[in-house]
Amino acid sequence: MGRLLALAEERLLPLAVRAGEQRHLQAIRDGVVSALPLVLIGSAFLLIAQPPVSLSEKTQVWSPEMLGRLLLPFRITTNLIAIYVAFSVAHSLARGYGMDGLSAGLLSAGAFLIGSRPSQAALAPGAKPEWVLPMASLGAGGLFVAIIVAIFAVEVQRLFIARNWTIKMPAGVPPAVGRSFAMLLPAAVVLTAAWVVFHMAGLDVFALIARRVGRPLSEASNSLPGVLLVVLIDSALWLVGIHAVAVLAVMQPIWLQLVLENQAAHAAGAALLPNIGAKEFYIWFVWIGGSGASLCLPFIWLRARSAALRGVAKVALLPSLCNINEPVIFGAPIVMNGVLAAPFVLAPLAMAALAWCAFHFHWVMRPYVLVPWTLPGPLGAYFTTGGDWRALVLVVVNLGISVLIYLPFAVAYDRRLASQESAGIDTHRAPG
Question: Which of 97, 190, 285, 365 has a CA 20 to 30 Å removed from the CA of 412?
Fold first, then answer.
């Protein structure tokens, strides 16, 4: 195991660091995360509008008029999420380049709205046709197009700034006015390009991206091999001391699309939701207590023979209950630890396989509600499935699996540290 970890540190660490520092991946990650509060609020309204009761009872909870009012915040936040992502990704990428984020975000959102192909339609029989936006293009189905448009808009703007192809205003002009004129030429190019590609070329870019990118990625993310690969990458990165969130940024739009599709299906009254591999699957049913499913370690080490591990357990217990396990990962430590590496990889893999089977065979309602990730695991699992009690059973079973896998390694590591402490050896010098 020590040789394997050394090899991972030598080969995997440089690649992971470069991926985590890649400017566009950072912008995608930060942009999607910036839009999540809107989805969280929308999810809360969806849960209120369609509470976790039986179907016959659910139809009697709210009147049709009240149900429509309750679902309005959900539709305005979730069903328009691609607009917010187009703005926030461009804003983040522009800030990374040292450019004006606001102008970049507005330009990106404008280009994306042009690309959504507004059309005229009569909103009522005999009414005068009005311009409307297609909601299907502005929600989860438009996320990948929004990201592409955002990157294109910023890169065009950056090219114009680098080549000094901008309109400069005299000194003394207010900065906001100067920025507006500086954006005129790149905005003309970006908006015209969006008009040509999405309208004049006759291409259904949304359908093309969904067919060639979105659908294959969704199918891979929902498959058991795809789920296990994500879990394996997460554990491997943490073992060499890399925060996996930075590298798995590319998964953020995919995860968001999957959960939004589940939300839309549930809002439409579907009994079976389409997707398994949303981020909520990992947070609430696999990474219980944080990456590596290490929630059981603080409880095991509360009575450890090693004073160091008892101290780690006391410090890490409460954060681990809220899915923050950096005190365990860096305090035990698990990083580059040949003893704890095996359960850190095996436990979440086993839990992911069981959870995937439970959702695949519809034994448990698939996740569709976004809830704050710092909730204790059982509560998060209960709410993300819309109040399915079977989710609690799955969490308990998975916790039991993690205990069975971690226990012998945790005890062996405790004995090793205890013997080193008795011999006066620094226990944090060489954990492996």
Answer: 285
